[in-house]
């Protein structure tokens, strides 16, 4: 029971860090946090769907695959993670003003918080939703590191979104993904003997 409680504490903490990254450092510069946001932009551009619905649609499809591949427990944790991050972003972005010194510093800080947050989520058997889900599926099948797979998928989507949004934003997004996925891989490969609950538990059911 104690292990379950601690795992959910880490889950909420990881999702909260991801929300801080988005609301304070990335979204103020219109930098997408990952490929799901870029995919939503493309769906909006190609089919005329609203951005909110496009983002929900992308996550719903990925969660359906996640349920089939990873099982109900993993999917449930991911839904909680996504809800916690969304709530954090909504609250922080509207209630707490945050000074921005320079966009490069914001990208560095955003990448750090995002990478740590997603890394923790993966370690406790969850994810941040979006493109992390297919990245974990491919990583499991090919025995590759999740961060590198996530970087490759997001890079492809960001290249496509460069047809829709300012190329500078795409460059910033790629830099952010490059840094954050390195941090994700570091946390994923980190050997933590005293915290068995942080052993990667996203394996196929």
TrEMBL record:
Sorted UniProt keywords: Cell membrane, Membrane, Transmembrane, Transmembrane helix
Main location class: membrane
Entry superkingdom: Bacteria
Membrane-topology annotation of the record: Multi-pass membrane protein
A GO term from the CC aspect: plasma membrane
Membrane spanning stretches: 5-27, 47-67, 74-94, 100-124
Intracellular or extracellular location(s): Cell membrane
Presence of keyword Transmembrane helix: yes
Pfam families: YitT_membrane
PANTHER family listed in its UniProt record: UPF0750 MEMBRANE PROTEIN YITE, UPF0750 MEMBRANE PROTEIN YITT-RELATED
Protein name, per record: YitT family protein
Native organism: Lederbergia citri
């Amino acid at each position: 029971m104690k292990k379950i409680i601690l795992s959910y504490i880490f889950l909420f903490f990881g999702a909260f860090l991801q929300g801080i990254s988005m609301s304070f450092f990335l979204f103020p510069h219109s930098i997408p946090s990952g490929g799901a946001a870029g995919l939503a932009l493309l769906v909006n551009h190609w089919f005329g769907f609203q951005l909110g619905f496009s983002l929900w649609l992308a996550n719903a499809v990925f969660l359906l695959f996640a349920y089939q591949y990873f099982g109900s427990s993993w999917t449930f944790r991911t839904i909680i993670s996504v809800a916690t991050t969304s709530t954090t972003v909504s609250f922080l972005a509207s209630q707490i003003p945050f000074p921005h010194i320079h966009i490069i510093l914001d990208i560095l800080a955003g990448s750090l918080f995002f990478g740590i947050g997603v890394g923790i989520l993966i370690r406790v058997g969850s994810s941040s939703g979006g493109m992390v889900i297919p990245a974990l599926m491919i990583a499991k099948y090919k025995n590759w590191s999740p961060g590198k797979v996530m970087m490759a998928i997001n890079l492809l989507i960001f290249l496509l979104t460069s047809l829709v949004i300012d190329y500078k934003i795409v460059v910033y997004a790629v830099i952010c993904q490059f840094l954050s996925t390195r941090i994700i891989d570091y946390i994923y490969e980190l050997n933590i003997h005293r915290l068995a609950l942080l052993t990667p538990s996203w394996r196929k059911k």
